[in-house]
Design brief:
InterPro entries: AlkZ-like (IPR009351). One of its GO terms (molecular function) is DNA binding. It comes from Thermostaphylospora chromogena. The chain has 17 helices and 15 strands. The N terminus is likely disordered. The relative contact order is 0.15. A hairpin with a 2-residue loop joins strand 12 and strand 13. The longest helix is centred in the last third of the chain and has 18 residues. The protein has a domain of 87 residues. The strands form four sheets. It has a five-stranded mixed beta sheet with strand order 11-12-13-14-15, with helices on one face. A four-stranded mixed beta sheet has the order 1-2-9-10. Strands 3-5-4 form a three-stranded antiparallel beta sheet, with helices on both faces. By secondary structure, it is of the alpha+beta class.
């Protein structure tokens, strides 16, 4: 299934490398904007958009709301909150071993596909001492029984597990359970109102929460097809960067007969769905404000289709893509932050006056969403270098 996948291809590539059509960078950029629903706000429902994107990163509660606001016409906070309350979207550990939001029917196949990556965390120093000599699966079975038919906070679950495994760190035991089992979070964990990771998160079993269970086997081909529908054309390393799953070359090679094979201008091999549309390089690209950790950026190993390499290096080592960005003409042109009642736009370099005006207009449209009820909220520009790029030093909405 490829919900809301791209339609018949248009705008063919303009060159050839080793007998394969090449795609100019600008075509890759415009195609990303179209498939990520950033070229024009969509009238699709938020649930349809989440399904199209496969999963939306959301370990810090407010960011998925911003990501949907920038894609969905007329999006309101309660549109997502209701999906969580009504159990039509679940919040859990998924791609890249991080918290994402997804429809339960997609989480069913995503979890077994990424489970080996999630489970690999148990080999790190964080867990080595605390679970030495213990079987993680046995911890999971114990947690599964403790959680049957109820929802517990991580702290409560850890305390109960520690009664079964005396002398072990309760918090680590709860984390092991969440690594081994398909546990989802209660809706409050994903409610609007937090720019940083929440504490006191409650967890429960997928079977109890959504009345369904995960598939027994990984569905890597499904994962790749769904990725390409929303992120393609892309290379194997891009798919691996998005999913966190490694050694996908053989899987993609097995799918090669039913995929379209292209080349980037630098010679990288790219794959796409055979009926997928390639965008017109002259497609207009409005200013867009992306949340931190948006998959339009994190969805690739080579991110030059959305952010120049020199700009990505400004914060890559200290914040990865975990900074909110704004796009001008389709490419990242700066970061943005919230300070008190001010939305600060920080361009990477001086903007032409027309572009600065467009950024300010879009920022003013965003203001009432990120500062609900704050009539005195305003927009300002700051010079690059005037703010620290380390996200931990800039608390959203605070000094």
């Amino acid at each position: 299934m490829r919900p809301n996948g791209p339609s018949r291809k248009t705008s063919p590539p303009t060159g050839m490398i080793d007998g394969m059509p090449t795609i100019p960078l600008r075509v890759l950029n415009r195609t990303l904007l179209q498939r990520q629903l950033l070229a024009e706000r969509t009238t699709r429902s938020p649930l349809e958009v989440i399904r199209h994107l496969v999963a939306v990163q959301g370990q810090e509660p407010n960011w998925p709301y911003v990501g949907l606001w920038t894609r969905v016409a007329g999006f309101r906070h309660d549109d997502l909150a209701a999906l969580l309350r009504e159990r039509r979207v679940v919040r859990a550990t998924m791609l890249r071993r991080t918290i994402h939001l997804a429809a339960p029917e997609d989480y069913r196949w995503l979890w077994p596909s990424v489970r080996p990556v999630v489970r690999a965390a148990l080999r790190t120093a964080r867990y080595a001492e605390q679970i030495a000599g213990l079987d993680p699966d046995e911890i999971g079975e114990t947690a599964d029984k403790l959680l049957a038919g109820r929802t517990l906070s991580r702290k409560e679950l850890g305390r109960l597990l520690a009664e079964h495994y005396p002398g072990r760190h309760a918090g680590r035991l709860a984390e092991v359970a969440e690594t081994v089992l398909s546990l989802v979070h209660a809706p409050a964990a994903g409610a609007w109102g937090g720019w940083s990771t929440r504490t006191g998160i409650q967890v429960t079993r997928l079977a109890d929460w959504a009345g369904t269970t995960v598939h027994e086997r990984p569905m890597l081909e499904t994962m790749i097809e769904r990725y390409l529908a929303a992120f393609g054309p892309a290379g194997v390393m891009d798919i691996q960067a998005w999913s966190g799953v490694t050694r996908l070359r053989d899987v993609v090679d097995g799918m090669r007969p039913r995929l379209r094979v292209l080349r980037a201008e630098d010679g990288r091999e790219l794959f796409d769905l055979p009926d997928a549309a390639l965008a017109d390089p002259d497609l207009p690209a409005p200013v867009r404000f992306l949340p931190a950790f948006d998959n339009a950026v994190l969805g690739y190993r080579d991110r030059t289709r959305v952010i120049a390499e020199e700009d990505g290096r400004r914060f890559a080592e200290i914040a990865s893509a975990g900074v909110p960005l704004f796009l001008v003409d389709g490419f990242a042109a700066g970061t943005w932050w919230l300070r008190r009642r001010t939305l600060l736009a920080v361009p990477f370099r001086p903007l032409p006056s027309a572009a600065e005006q467009a950024v300010e207009e879009e920022a003013r449209r965003l203001l009432p969403f990120v500062f609900p009820g704050e009539e005195e909220a305003t927009v300002a520009f700051a010079e690059e270098g005037s703010l620290p790029l380390n996200r931990l030093q800039i608390m959203m909405g605070r000094d």
